[in-house]
């Protein structure tokens, strides 16, 4: 009987062992925002909404003027997706960094979605789409999801349309034409 003892047994699959590991995950996880995320979210909004501000020539839009204290107040109120009036804030995190965010607030049976942002260097990878899907999931009692964007923000409109949102109307607010979009719950994206 051969003595195999503690000697290493040669791997009969050298080719397989030499193959590179499967592609790493993007390492980006979605989570409910915490108090300590407020600073990063406000900075991310400030960075991301510059293009919108430039497009409309208005740098006083709410996402650019919100303070960390205001956002901390929203986070402290702690929406759970079922309580009327409280806001759920979701972030996409890579390690310590908040790279994308979105909010949803239940208003009766309507979930109002807003402040969707993705860091410029991580765009066009489906992050905003993931966050939209997640904020919808977090509001299981909502019959309908509503959001708005500037009527000239064609990229945003295309993204929302792809996710099942449809235009419901337009209105001029502070000289900017806004487009309102909605999606009934359960609409396939
Ligand atoms: C709007 C915004 C949040 C989109 O973020 P994003 O993470 O790039 O969005 P997504 O990746 O989900 O989708 C964007 C596009 O990338 C495409 N995409 C998604 N995954 C992709 C992938 N793996 N490879 C290539 N393209 C991809 C999507 O199909 C979509 O294409 P389309 O524009 O032709 O429809 C981001 O551009 C932003 O922060 N803008 C400034 C703030 C703003 O205007 N927010 C909205 C206010 S209403």
Short description:
The chain is α+β, with helices and mostly antiparallel strands and 189 residues long.
Walkthrough of the structure:
30% of the residues lie in helices and 30% in strands. It has seven helices and seven strands. Mean pLDDT is 88; it is low at 1-24. Coenzyme A binds at residues 48-49, 51-52, 116-118, 123-129, 149, 153, 155-156, 158-159, 162. The site of coenzyme A (COA) has 21 residues, from helix 3, strand 4, helix 6 and helix 7. It comes from Frankia torreyi. Residues 1-26 are annotated as: Disordered. Residues 28-186 form the N-acetyltransferase domain.
Mean pLDDT: 88
Structural category: alpha+beta
The fourth-level CATH homologous superfamily is Gcn5-related N-acetyltransferase (GNAT)
Order of helices and strands: HEHHHHEEEHEHEE
- Small-molecule binders: coenzyme A
Reported by name, the CATH topology is: Aminopeptidase
Oligomerization category of the chains in this entry = single chain
Keywords: Transferase
InterPro entries: Acyl_CoA_acyltransferase (IPR016181), GNAT_dom (IPR000182)
Region (Disordered): 1-26
GO molecular function, one term: acyltransferase activity, transferring groups other than amino-acyl groups
Pick out its properties.
disordered N terminus; single chain; binds coenzyme A; transferase; Aminopeptidase; GNAT_dom; alpha+beta; 30% helix; seven-stranded mixed sheet; 189 residues
Helix and strand topology:
Elements: H1 14-18, E1 28-32, H2 38-48, H3 50-56, H4 62-65, H5 68-77, E2 87-94, E3 97-107, E4 110-118, H6 127-137, E5 144-150, H7 154-162, E6 166-173, E7 176-184
Parallel strand pairs: 4-5
Antiparallel strand pairs: 1-2, 2-3, 3-4, 5-7, 6-7
Helix pairs in contact: 2-5
The structure holds coenzyme A.
Coenzyme A binds at residues 48-49, 51-52, 116-118, 123-129, 149, 153, 155-156, 158-159, 162.
Keywords: Transferase
Protein name: Acetyltransferase
Region (Disordered): 1-26
